[in-house]
Amino acid sequence: ELDYTIEATSMERVAAQYLDNPDVYIPLVYRRLSADRILVTEFVDGIKVSHLDRLAADGLDPKVICDRGADILLKQIFEHGFFHADPHPGNIFVLPSNVICLIDFGMMGIVDRATREDFVELVDAVVSRDEQRATRVLLKLTLWEEEPDTRRLGQDVADFMGQHLYRPLEDIELGRLLHHLLDLVGRHQLRLPPEIFLMLKALTIVEGVARHLNPDFDMIAKAEPFVRNVKLARFSAERVSSDLAGIVSQAFEFAVDFPKDLLEITRSIRQKKLTVQLEMRGLEKMLHTHDQISNRISFSIIIAALIIGSALIVISRTPPIFYGISLIGIIGFLAAAIMGIWLLVAILKKGKL
To answer: How far apart are the C-alpha atoms of 252 and 226, rounded to whole Å?
Structure first.
């Protein structure tokens, strides 16, 4: 919303996706009247998808609208990789003949092919009740600072599957399933990339809208053909040949660049420009404990020396004398006593003698 030309471009891009689909309508953008601070589009006189009474009065079919709306988002996500990320009822209008009209393209999501395929693999692993594969793919899809405990994560994934999958498919709510998945990810200090989060959000919103139109709507069954097509596309002849060509190209590029890079490294070593920095992690606690032990040993030696020295001073009756005892010896004994109590308190605070 800082630059409305971006939204205008998004509208035109989505409109191009549905040029051959008469069931979807995207308002026309008036580029000559639009700028970065103003967006002028065609006025559309439709009915909000949430107004069921008006839809019925105009002879429109909620079930057809439900199917078409879900198809639009699923196709955007799994085929085009460019989708409307805020498909709430206020942004979906219905035109005559159950035509779906989308507005407000200010929030769009983009998922590349690799991310779509990883997400489909996660869905497939969950549906197949394969906890280990689901855990691996979940780690592949998420970000983290420190690698999580994969054993505990796997147990939570198995528990997640047990809560949602051992029931009839029509009873599974995609929104609740995705919500619990987000909870699981958060518990293990994992982070979902923004595009994945937007995709889950859009799917949840659309499922809510669809169930408002058709309480018997099954989002998982609706998504199944799209998921299957993504899986099959990975093994198409065109995709395999493209991947092989990419591998060959990368191998050739590596073969050409590697000698140059090796020569550059050798030159840097010879000119003493190459430095190696080693970072030892996990030693801080050990070094702290080592310093603590060294300090206590030093403290104990000083206390022992004070006691022995003070005893010799007292025996030798070194002046000044106080009540027949050397005052210096008394001060030495007091200092040793204070230091000894201090050391004992420090040890007791740590809970270890």
So the answer is: 35
Task: Compute the distance between CA of residue 316 and CA of residue 325 in angstroms, rounded to an integer.
Answer: 10
Q: Give CA–CA dist 211/69, Å, rounded.
A: 11
3-class secondary structure, 28:
coil
Nearest to 90 by CA among 48, 54, 53, 62: 48
Q: What is the DSSP secondary structure assignment for residue 35, as one 8-state letter? A: B
In the beta sheet, which residues pair with residue 84?
108
Residue whose C-alpha is closest to residue 211's, from 164, 177, 161, 170: 170
Peptide bond connecting 96 to the previous residue in cis, omega within 30 degrees of 0: no
Burial class (CB in 10 A: 0-12, 13-18, 19+), 210: buried
Distance, CA of 21 to CA of 23 (rounded, Å): 5
In 3D, which of 139, 159, 138, 155 has the Cα closest to residue 147? 139
Tokens of residue 339, six digits: 């230091």
Residue type, 91: N
Under DSSP, the state recorded for 234 is: T
Phi, psi of 22 (to 5 degrees): -75, -5
> Which of 45, 37, 40 lies closest to 28, judged by CA?
40
> Is the pTM higher than 0.90?
no
Three-state secondary structure of 287-310: HHHHHHHHHHHHHHHHHHHHHHHH
Per-residue pLDDT reduced to its tens digit, 83-140: 999 999 999 999 999 999 999 999 999 998 888 888 888 877 877 778 888 888 888 8
